[in-house]
Amino acid sequence: MMLTFYKYQGTGNDFVIIDNRQSILTKNDTKLFARLCDRKFGIGADGLMLLELPNNEQDDFTMVYFNADGKESSMCGNGGRCLVAFAAYLGVISDTATFTAIDGPHKATIKKDLVHLQMQNVSLIEKFDTHLFLDTGSPHHVTMVRELANYDVKNIGRKIRNGAPYFEKGSNVNFVEKKQDGVFDVRTYERGVEDETLSCGTGVTAVALSMHATNLTDRQEVVVNTLGGELKVTFQETENGYENIFLIGPAKQVFKGEIEW
Ligand SMILES: N[C@@H](CCC[C@H](N)C(=O)O)C(=O)O
């Protein structure tokens, strides 16, 4: 049997997307998802998403996200932006979307080819001597480094991801360098891909909030450069933490295809 799929990328974080409104696949098809994400034996991607029917009257669709290892995971910011672009391509939405992902409800708008995705509020940023830790829909360890371009993200990231206090559950790990006020470079080791990816949207969001929380910028509009391109994060600091957080950037369809399954 042939399965129709779509390939999308958001600043180089790439995804297989399947229109699952007819429930052709289930969440238990984890071996299939891992095979489709495999860069040698499948299509190749950092993750896979199912666009499913909404579970309530407000939503346009439901987002279900799996890492490249085939396991369902927490929120994917770049994935969410790509799924909004896919929903527009399908005609499920025009230029605004309301959908639910594993971390709760999201709103998004498409403006001039950029997807503005609202992320969950963040009330807790844990500060340690060497790093910060926060959850922006997915868990993120954020640490400042020098000479980011030459940094061994894969090996040092893997060690932190597997070490205390994260162990098997893991964390994504972001290495950051300040470029100028309100502009930061980041490279991310992603849990579930178990490698560096070109970009991580929840990671970029975590970096922007962390930089503000540690006074490395007082701007509430932060530019974060990833290896795959530029993302912007806007937010408001309130007495409850950070609210009205938006992750803003491009999301492009790369190709459509069919694969035997
Ligand atoms: N690439 C993502 C994050 C995907 C989830 C992550 N790998 C995890 O398991 O925590 C993004 O753009 O946010």
From TrEMBL:
Substrate binds at N13, N67, G77, N78, N172, E190, R191, G201, T202. The active site is at C76 (proton donor), C200 (proton acceptor). GO terms for biological process: lysine biosynthetic process via diaminopimelate. Keywords: Amino-acid biosynthesis, Cytoplasm, Isomerase, Lysine biosynthesis. GO terms for molecular function: diaminopimelate epimerase activity. Its EC number is 5.1.1.7. It is found in: Cytoplasm. It comes from the Bacteria. InterPro entries: DAP_epimerase_DapF. Pfam families: DAP_epimerase. Gene3D superfamilies: Diaminopimelate Epimerase, Chain A, domain 1 (3.10.310.10). Catalyzes the stereoinversion of LL-2,6-diaminopimelate (L,L-DAP) to meso-diaminopimelate (meso-DAP), a precursor of L-lysine and an essential component of the bacterial peptidoglycan. Homodimer. PANTHER family: DIAMINOPIMELATE EPIMERASE, DIAMINOPIMELATE EPIMERASE, CHLOROPLASTIC. Belongs to the diaminopimelate epimerase family. This is Diaminopimelate epimerase. It comes from Aquimarina muelleri. The gene is dapF.
